Amino acid sequence: MAKSLKGQNTWKLWLIVAFNALFFYTVLEANTVRLIGLSALLSEAERLVPIGIAGIVATVLNALPSADLKATLVYWRLKHALPGHRAFSIYALKDTRINAPRLLKTFKGTFPSDPAEQNAAWYKLYKTVRDDPSVRDAHRTFLLLRDYTALSAFFLMVFGPWALFIMTDKLGAATYVGLLVGQFLLARQGAHNAGVRMVTNVLALKSAMVR
Question: Which one of 65, 76, 104, 202 has the largest count of C-beta atoms within 10 Å of its C-beta?
Answer without folding.
Answer: 202
